[in-house]
Amino acid sequence: MPSQSTHLLDSLDSTLTAWLAERDVPKFRGKQIRNWLFEKRAADWQAMTNLPQALRDQLTAELPLWTSSVAKHTKAEDGTEKLLLSLADGGQIECVLLRDKVRRTICISTQVGCGMGCVFCASGLDGVDRNLTTGEIIEQILLLQNLLAKEERLSHIVVMGMGEPLANLDGLLPALEEAHREDGLGISARRITISTVGLPASIDRLAKHKRTYRLAISLHAPNDELRNKLVPVNDKIGLDAILDAADRYFDVSGRRLTYEYVLLHDLNDQDEHARELADRLSGREALLNVIPYNPVAGLPYETPTLARQHAFRDILEQAGIRVQFRHRKGNRIDAACGQLRRSQQEVFALE
Ligand code: SAH
After folding, report:
1. 221 in contact with ligand 1, CB cutoff 6 A
2. Whole-model pTM above 0.85?
3. Residue 55 Cα, ligand 1 centroid: separation in angstroms?
4. Does residue 110 have its Cβ closer than 6 Å to ligand 1?
């Protein structure tokens, strides 16, 4: 049995340094291991061929590299791939690789389930079980990177999978640090986006962090009355407090914020919603990312017609708001925004 129960990737440097020192293995082996993991995409200890065989065997026996296993791997024709991972305690999460021209973006989860309760989202249907550990988050990143062909390079990370990332900053930030570090994945902070339902205190905490990641805030409604219905946690927060925190983040980071808006037929897609939204956002350095609703089995919502989508867009653009519609990547394998879930019940999917 492995001699330790913690995840190696929860604190890679300290665990590895101590393990190597206890066995009188020279320090440079630690650097080689890092390189194998992040750069050379090793699948296991045995793949690390410049380590002595005896060391590889000892690592295999004593220090589990992965704690999750791939329960299902789904591929779509557009190049999107989705992994369903089973965690050590039996919990399940999903994460996604998206291919778009030269971009290789991965979408990672931060919690098992989600506690925010957005009414149109699959991830929160059964509430939240627990936060993912740093190691479990890094593991998703590495397993997804390992899906790439040799000539492909991981270019972007979006923290838009299952869960509310700002409710798990302690787990997330050290994982993103590994993604950012030169001797990690070397991905610059501007290519890493964290998406949040809008938790002001955590946005302020993020503003003080040494890395200025891109921030995306899920609005979904231009006023509190409607937002309370679609995003129940809004009740205790309110749009003003969220936008104020977002403005503070912009002041500190200098990075343009993205606002996300799931477009739901009849509920938040009318002309008056577009006009009110334009009023809210005008004067702000912002990009509005509109996501036409991706259907979730069992939920009663509908995607607006193309004509309605265009009308909504026109009003915002005429008011001077920068608008982008998000393509439906991965929706044929239920890998698009809001379709990730922890149980596989009725969903699935072409291989
Ligand atoms: N908890 C974070 C990350 C969630 S997922 C957040 O709230 O931002 C990323 C985006 O997908 C969010 O904007 C979320 O509201 C949106 N989303 C959720 N369900 C969706 C659905 N069924 N169709 C389209 N987008 C959805």
Report:
1. no
2. yes
3. 44
4. no
259 C-beta closer than 6 A to ligand 1: no
Instruction: Give the bridge partners for 100, in sequence order.
Output: 103
Q: Extract the tokens encoding 303.
A: 């995607």
Using pLDDT thresholds of 50, 70 and 90, give the confidence band for residue 346: very low
Distance CA 138, CA 129 (A): 19
Catalytic choice (81, 94, 164, 260): 94
Per the structure block, which two tokens stand in for 183?
Answer: 């001797």
Distance CA 38, CA 141 (A): 10
Size (the chain), residues: 351
Return the percent helix, strand and coil in the chain, to nearest 5: 40, 20, 45
Give the single-character DSSP code of 333. G
Contact 252, 203 (CB under 8 A): no
**Does the active-site annotation cover 114?**
no
